[in-house]
Amino acid sequence: VAVREGRFTEAENLYKEALSLRKTTGQKTDYFPEAHAGLGHLLMRLGREAEAAQEIDKAVTQKGNYWPGMYAKARRLMEAEQLEQAKKILDKGAKEKGVEKGEELYHHGMALYYLKTNELDKAEKEAMTSLQMMPSESEYGTLVAEIYQKKGSPEMAIFALEQALKAPGMEQSASTYRTLGTLYSQAQKYNEARDSYLKAVEIDSTYTPVLKDLAALLHLAQQNDKAAVVYMRYLQSEPGDIDALVGLSESALAINQFT
Q1: Predicted pLDDT of residue 123
Q2: How confident is the prediction for the chain on average, in pLDDT?
Q3: pLDDT computed for residue 131 by the predictor
Q4: pTM beyond 0.85, yes or no
Q5: What is the DSSP code string of the chain?
């Protein structure tokens, strides 16, 4: 529950507390595959891959047929582009039925696999199934949006990502709002795109990729004075970006034409 509600620090502490309790209650080992798998999955979400690998390996070693642990291992394999090995593990989850058995993990894992293999219709079907089974899981909503984006359906991707952002467990990250801004731009919803880019900057002022997107959008809207300022801010971090240098030159030229 803490993970789905975005309370990641609390969730990590709870998992670690559960594992430490075994050692303080007379247990000889930290045998607790459920906690190791849950902690490993959480650490993957937080980008702490080395720590995640240790926990997932412990879960699978302690209980080789524990499905959430196998799912987490399959995801690690997919991240390493070891797709066939991942698929063999995921296939073992096809028999799991119902949320209590982790069926939604199987469908989410298969959606990730099909996205990797560029089988987008299959990926969409699996991703939607996992989202319908557990709509409060933000990872499932963002994956649906990613698939629609790759299929060239920005409107559907926007809807999926907007719904995911409303979920209690959804991390409000600069990169997510940049993605949303890009989708709005593709759908020619430029005001919404600008607001999303500005939200990304508000969340993380050091996240430079969104500055280039925002500057290009301001230039498109003929707000060249603002575009030039944002381009110059971006170029302080990325001085060799040719596209940004061209954008700055065009914005500066447009300003001169009206002065």
Answers
A1: 96
A2: 86
A3: 84
A4: no
A5: -TTTTT-HHHHHHHHHHHHHHHHHTT-SS---HHHHHHHHHHHHHTT-HHHHHHHHHHHHHH-TT-HHHHHHHHHHHHHTT-HHHHHHHHHTTTT--SGGGTHHHHHHHHHHHHHHTT-HHHHHHHHHHHHHH-TT-HHHHHHHHHHHHHTT-HHHHHHHHHHHHHSTT----HHHHHHHHHHHHHTT-HHHHHHHHHHHHHH-TT-THHHHHHHHHHHHTT-HHHHHHHHHHHHHH-TT-HHHHHHHHHHHHHHHHT-
